[in-house]
Amino acid sequence: MSFSFVQITDHHLGETESQLMKGYATAHAVRKVMRHIAEHVADNIDFLIMTGDLVNNPSATSYSNVCQIFQLEAASAAPGPVLVTLEGLEAFPMYFLPGNHDDRDQFFRHLFTETPPMPLMNASFQHKGVQFICLDFGAGDDAVIYPETLAFLERSLQIGLPSVIVTHHHMVPIGIRWLDTFFQDEEKSEAFWNIATKYQAQILGVLSGHVHTTYEKIAHGIPVFGLRSTAPQPVFQDEPLLCLQPPHYRLVTIQDGILTTRIFEVPL
């Protein structure tokens, strides 16, 4: 059985729809992306998944603004699906992961009203025989390999289903020094990959956000994908510098145990 879904990431929405991030209208970009999805792929996908950094400054007001923009119907349990209605999408199922900019307490209170807030959102869901394993490496800029996150990953993979791993933090270096600090301590990333490689045959791919950049790599025989954000993106240099490029979203199709993707660029 085959199905498709869309990944979007790193919205960095503010406390009002008009609030800018470094001069960039993040809410406008989100609306343009959602309109493009509604017009071009929504009829052929089963759900959306957002891979973290829903807001830029994690206040209750920011999350209330998110709920208003998405006309969000909160779900009972993380990671969803939550139903969203905007820009041509009507009560459309969407899964949410928290990122390093997301306050876990506010994130849960606004998106998952019946789930008690927890410090880490390690959760999974199944769709048409495929397991989606959502891993949380914390709210800091540098990912932390928590023992409970690794234990959750291994327990989930032991079920034996074909699986997609979904994270906020990127799991491979991308060549930007100030974003790749996580990988300066090789033991951090090795702890993750030591588990993943044991179950390589059943892992269809790893989807991540965080670095605001689209990439496709192979790590330990496993496809790994990153995605350009709907917020400003980094320039490939050693010191922090952001630029403005058209946002991306990733259409993912799983058919006969094979994951393929296509990138859509959205003009602003």
Automatic annotation (TrEMBL):
GO molecular function, one term: metal ion binding
Keywords: Hydrolase, Iron, Metal-binding
A family per Pfam: Metallophos
Keyword Endoplasmic reticulum: no
Residues annotated as domain Calcineurin-like phosphoesterase: 4-213
Keyword Aminoacyl-tRNA synthetase among UniProt keywords: no
InterPro entries in the cross-refs: Calcineurin-like_PHP, CNP_phosphodiesterase-III, Metallo-depent_PP-like
Family: Belongs to the cyclic nucleotide phosphodiesterase class-III family.
Entry protein name: Metallophosphoesterase
Organism: Ktedonobacter racemifer DSM 44963
